[in-house]
Write a structure and sequence with these properties.
The protein is α+β, with helices and mostly antiparallel strands. It has 2 helices and 12 strands, in the order H-E-E-E-E-E-E-E-H-E-E-E-E-E. One of its GO terms (biological process) is defense response to other organism.
Length: 243
C-alpha cells in the first residue's frame, strides 16, 4: 500500500517554530531598560521637588504678607516728624579774606514728634552736624532719651568754635553775598539710631538720616531773638528724610 502513495501528499517534515526569539533593541528604542527607568524616575522626582519648592515659596510669601498687614493694622506706624523751630546765629565769619578758619556760634531748637499711639521710641544715638557749602564745620552728640506715645520732644544742639572750611571761588562769592544779606544757608543733618517699643517688647535697630536746609539770619548779641542785623526772622523749617 505504501508504494502507491503519491509524494505530493507527503512532503518533508517541517520543524516546529522556535519558542524563543531574540530582538536587539536599537538606539532609539524607548523600552524601559535599567537606565531608562532611572532617567524617568529622576525626571519625575525633580519635577515633584520643584513643584513642592514653588508651593512652599508661595505659601511663605502669602503668610508674610498677611503677617505684615496684621502688624500694620495693630501698630498703624507713622514716620517721625522733624521741624527746626528756632535758630540763633550770632557769629559766622572768617578771620581774614585769605584765611579759611571759620568762627561760628549757632544754637538750634528742633522738635521731634512721635505721632504713634502704640509705639514708643528709644533714641540711642543722636548725632547732629552743621554744613556750609557742603562742608561740615561742626558735629555734636546729644544725650539719648526715650520718647513716649503721641509726644513731642525738643533737640537743642549748639555749635560754638572754629574750624577750617575750604571755599572755592564760587563758595567765597556765595559767602560774600550772604554776608551782605545777613542770611546764611546752613544745612543741618541728624544721624539717629533708634529702637521701637510696643508694650514690654523692644525691637528694631534703625538708622534714619534727617536733613534740615536752613536759612539762618545773623543776629547781634544785643538784639532780641526775633530780630537780626538785617531785620531777618528765622522761619520754622520742615526737615526731610535724607535717603
Amino acid at each position: 500500500m505504501a508504494s502507491h502513495l503519491n509524494g505530493a501528499y507527503y512532503g518533508p517534515s517541517i520543524p516546529p517554530p522556535s519558542s524563543k526569539s531574540y530582538h536587539r533593541p536599537g538606539r532609539g528604542d524607548s523600552g524601559c531598560g535599567c537606565c531608562g527607568c532611572l532617567g524617568c524616575l529622576c525626571n519625575c522626582c525633580c519635577g515633584c521637588i520643584l513643584n513642592l519648592i514653588c508651593q512652599i515659596l508661595i505659601t511663605v510669601v502669602i503668610v508674610l504678607g498677611i503677617a505684615v498687614f496684621l502688624l500694620w493694622l495693630i501698630f498703624r506706624p507713622n514716620l517721625l516728624q522733624f521741624h527746626a523751630t528756632d535758630a540763633s546765629l550770632t557769629q559766622f565769619n572768617f578771620t581774614s579774606p585769605n584765611n579759611n578758619n571759620l568762627h561760628y556760634n549757632l544754637a538750634l531748637n528742633i522738635t521731634v514728634r512721635n505721632p504713634n499711639r502704640r509705639i514708643g521710641i528709644y533714641y540711642d544715638v543722636i548725632e547732629v552736624s552743621a554744613f556750609y557749602e557742603d562742608q561740615r564745620f561742626s558735629t555734636v552728640n546729644l544725650s539719648q532719651f526715650y520718647q513716649g506715645h503721641k509726644n513731642t520732644s525738643v533737640l537743642s544742639p549748639s555749635f560754638v568754635g572754629q574750624n577750617i572750611v575750604l571755599l572755592g571761588t564760587d563758595g567765597i562769592s556765595s559767602y560774600n553775598s550772604e554776608k551782605s544779606s545777613g542770611i546764611f544757608s546752613i544745612d543741618v543733618k541728624i544721624n539717629l539710631r533708634i529702637r521701637f517699643k510696643f508694650g514690654l517688647v523692644k525691637f528694631g535697630h534703625y538708622k534714619p538720616k534727617i536733613r534740615c536746609p536752613l536759612k539762618v539770619p545773623l543776629r547781634s548779641n544785643s538784639t532780641s531773638s526775633s530780630s537780626s542785623s538785617s531785620n531777618g526772622v528765622f522761619e520754622t523749617t520742615k526737615c526731610s528724610y535724607d535717603l
